[in-house]
From TrEMBL:
Family annotation (InterPro entries): Aa-tRNA-synt_II, aa-tRNA-synth_II, aa-tRNA-synth_II/BPL/LPL, Asn-tRNA-ligase, Asp/Asn-tRNA-synth_IIb, NA-bd_OB-fold, NA-bd_OB_tRNA
Keywords: Aminoacyl-tRNA synthetase, ATP-binding, Cytoplasm, Ligase, Nucleotide-binding, Protein biosynthesis
Name of this protein: Asparagine--tRNA ligase
Source organism of this protein record: Adhaeribacter aerolatus
Family: Belongs to the class-II aminoacyl-tRNA synthetase family.
NCBIfam families referenced in this protein's UniProt entry, alphabetically: asnS, PRK03932.1
Length: 461
């Protein structure tokens, strides 16, 4: 049975026979000995294989080149080499899959992130993407741990849905009709009667509305699944397919929501610091010397909580020139969000009570008639990482808002009925998983924190 490199590097029992399998990172040597650095994905660190020339002729190691997949047996021994405590004195080497060194796209010199995006099938074999993917796993695991520990149930909301939620214009249509020649009604509109669902359906833009359904029965729930938005923007923080974590709590108000968001984010960052040490150290040294400082700062300091109206005042009197000037009523852009976080408060910010006309129909209206109990959490380097709100629990107010905004009430009859039968105050939020990944890895582009990014004109698979 093979041992994982992570376990071998931490082993205390030496001089035992071991079997390792993995991909060759480098091979170097002289006429007495060859050194092979092997990685198997279990850690960012390689294990060194030492092959004596007495046992291994140059010819026998000819196919052991960068990129090749090999299996090796040998004795785990203490190492004199710099930066490692153990190595393997090799007895046998078997090449499982050779990689033509002339053609293998991942060369030792390192590649730009842009180039690596074009070879999404090989980039997981780089140190950077190994680190990102292991951290993605750790963060997903931490999400479930947090909610399980806090008594939230994990529910699965649908991916194909008939509800438009709030995704005006951003939805991917799902249909079994011939898109080039759909059946038409007498008035010339697409007739969905023959479609699989008998009506227009989309890929979900958020699991929130269905999440509210289950929160109104189970009390505290969360969803964690893929969401889809036909974002036509080519930004470093938007994808067309991303993962979202959406908790929903019955019997909760905006303050409970802020408290949960802050505790949750701190827990996740702390989890990364405690469980991803080697990967974080690598990313810190390689890309962003402030990464570890920033992560430590976030877990140790309270977030700044602030009214939207106060934020607008700060932005209006800022010395910095913004591309889009701000007035009360403006939807904040990432340049404004980042100014508040990075320049003004120098800490994460939770902004609340936004103007109602820039927010979704389901948010609870404040007494002032102008604002709603919205909440955005803003992070350094990113801007909005969480969007949430206390929800409108009054049937009449919700129905009125739906009408005002020109939304088809028939589509939301079930959502309205939640307010008709046993309504309760409730609140929740959505955390974009890839925005979290941007923060904890320090990567600069959202396309580099998901294995197969989907964006306009993305790579072929
Ligand atoms: P933004 O203002 O950045 O476009 P949003 O306000 O449209 O975000 P929400 O509808 O509030 O986003 O969604 C909740 C969270 O989902 C956001 O706070 C963000 O973390 C994440 N998110 C939204 N859109 C995207 C996207 N296209 N790609 C990745 N993450 C996203
Ligand atoms: Mg958006
Ligand atoms: Mg926003
Ligand atoms: Mg938002």
């Amino acid at each position: 049975k093979r041992s994982k490199v992570a376990a071998l590097l931490a082993a205390t029992e030496l001089n035992q026979e071991v079997l390792v399998k993995g991909w060759v990172r480098t091979k170097r040597g002289n006429k007495f000995v060859s050194f092979i650095a092997l990685n198997d994905g279990s850690t960012i660190n390689n294990i060194q294989l030492v092959a004596d020339a007495e046992k291994f002729s140059e010819e026998s190691l000819r196919e052991v080149t960068t990129g090749a997949c090999i299996a090796a047996t040998g004795i785990l021994v203490a190492s004199q080499g710099k930066g490692q405590t153990v190595e393997i004195q090799v007895n046998t080497v078997e090449v499982l899959g050779a990689a033509d060194p002339e053609k293998y796209p991942l060369q030792k010199k390192g590649h730009s992130l842009e180039f690596l995006r074009e070879i999404a099938h090989l980039r997981p074999r780089t140190n950077t993407f190994g680190a990102v993917l292991r951290m993605r796993h750790a963060m997903a695991f931490a999400v479930h741990q947090f909610f399980n520990d806090h008594g939230f149930y994990y529910v699965h909301t649908p991916i194909i849905t008939g509800s438009d939620a709030e995704g005006a214009g951003q939805m991917f249509r799902v249909t079994t009709l011939d898109p080039l020649n759909p059946p038409k009604t007498e008035t010339g509109e697409v007739n969905y009667t023959d479609d699989f669902f008998g009506k227009q359906t989309n890929l979900t833009v958020s699991g929130q509305l269905e999440g509210e359904v289950t929160a109104m029965a189970l009390g505290q729930i969360y969803t964690f699944g893929p969401t889809f938005r036909a974002e036509n923007s080519n930004t470093t923080r938007h994808l067309a397919e991303f993962w979202m974590i959406e908790p929903e709590m019955a019997f909760a108000d905006l303050t409970d929501n802020m408290d949960l968001a802050e505790e949750f984010l701190k827990f996740l960052v702390m989890y990364a610091l405690n469980n991803c040490k080697d990967d974080l150290q690598f990313l810190n040294d390689m890309y962003d010397k402030e990464l570890l400082n920033r992560l430590n700062f976030v877990v140790q300091n309270d977030f700044q909580r602030l009214e939207y109206t106060e934020a607008v005042e700060i932005l209006k009197s800022a010395k910095q020139k913004f591309e889009f000037p701000v007035e009360w009523g403006t939807d904040l852009q990432s340049e404004h969000e980042r100014y508040l976080v990075e320049k003004h408060f120098k800490k994460p910010v939770i902004l609340i009570n936004y103007p109602k006309h820039i927010k979704a129909f389901y948010m609870k209206q404040n007494e002032d008639g102008k604002t709603v109990r919205a909440m955005d959490v803003l992070f350094p380097g990113i801007g909005e990482i969480i969007g949430g709100s206390q929800r409108e629990e009054s049937y009449d107010k919700l129905a009125q808002r739906i009408q005002e905004m020109g939304i088809h009430e028939e589509e939301l009859w079930w959502y309205l009925e939640l307010r008709k039968y046993g309504t309760a105050p409730h609140a929740g939020f959505g955390l974009g998983f890839e925005r979290l990944m941007l923060f904890v890895t320090g990567m600069g582009n959202i396309r580099d924190v998901i294995p197969f990014p989907r964006f306009p004109k993305s790579a072929e698979f």
